[in-house]
């Protein structure tokens, strides 16, 4: 931490800062410039926070040098992590060596629709099946998901296709039942800052897919991941799914630069959701290509056997030609950036 004194600060003001810092066991290194004095602090950063140094006379600014998140930071864990998803016998990696393709219906609607979507996903090369049983909807009158029945249908489709499943949990009270049926728990954009839910999934004993809040900064997103890690669960995968901007051409604006920014600062894997970012099926393939090129550890994509009748997000669901094009991109492009298909690295024993 660095304290910048104002040009008017006196020697007494500087001494007062040093005394406060030393009073909580820290060290203060004073560097006098021609105009300003700067004080470098070494010690327990949390105890410095409680000193409210900004309120002292002569203090112009206080800067933090180390990351505010610890467990998810590369400062404490330099090597990038791999998260394994699935039960013994079929575990799929998400991490720096592979590229993981996840796909499935936005919402679980019926056993037939879910199985058909799961088969489409598998046929296109996906190694993890997605599907929502609890849908976070803008309108309370919109389809809210099938709840526990939806979890069962999704788990059946996962078993039938041999794919581990990821599904969203929107309420801390449902974490246990969702964890019973799913291989990975998703926290969606609307709940990224629901700290009680983050703590609950941190204790569920399953990997977590943490989507970026649509108005969250990267630091806020990583602090949300820290909530999960702080409860003992470091199996967290981050998902960039687009942020709110002034641009109405797409549902959200995919912040593609978030991928390398996060990878530089956090060891957690980071994937991209081009479907919820764009909200339009015609952009899913180009954005997926961009995600692969920028170094994402995977993508998660909506597919539906009959998008016109979908109960949620039909316009962004892939079928037919677009899905074939996506399958081709996912088969060919990751190797160009030094990645192998996650299916090849899966643990099957
Ligand atoms: O998975 C999808 C979400 O539930 C969906 O994007 C919510 O958006 P809406 O309720 O505004 O349609
Ligand atoms: C609701 C979903 O996504 P998001 O939270 O990114 O809107 C989803 O993936 O089903």
UniProtKB/TrEMBL annotation:
<protein>
    <submittedName>
        <fullName>3-deoxy-7-phosphoheptulonate synthase</fullName>
        <ecNumber>2.5.1.54</ecNumber>
    </submittedName>
</protein>
<dbReference type="InterPro" id="IPR013785">
    <property type="entry name" value="Aldolase_TIM"/>
</dbReference>
<feature type="domain" description="DAHP synthase ferredoxin-like">
    <location>
        <begin position="1"/>
        <end position="66"/>
    </location>
</feature>
<dbReference type="GO" id="GO:0003849">
    <property type="term" value="F:3-deoxy-7-phosphoheptulonate synthase activity"/>
</dbReference>
<dbReference type="Pfam" id="PF00793">
    <property type="entry name" value="DAHP_synth_1"/>
</dbReference>
<keyword id="KW-0808">Transferase</keyword>
<dbReference type="InterPro" id="IPR052899">
    <property type="entry name" value="Class-I_DAHP_synthase"/>
</dbReference>
<feature type="domain" description="DAHP synthetase I/KDSA">
    <location>
        <begin position="91"/>
        <end position="331"/>
    </location>
</feature>
<dbReference type="InterPro" id="IPR041071">
    <property type="entry name" value="DAHP_snth_FXD"/>
</dbReference>
<dbReference type="InterPro" id="IPR006218">
    <property type="entry name" value="DAHP1/KDSA"/>
</dbReference>
<dbReference type="InterPro" id="IPR006268">
    <property type="entry name" value="DAHP_syn_2"/>
</dbReference>
<dbReference type="Pfam" id="PF18152">
    <property type="entry name" value="DAHP_snth_FXD"/>
</dbReference>
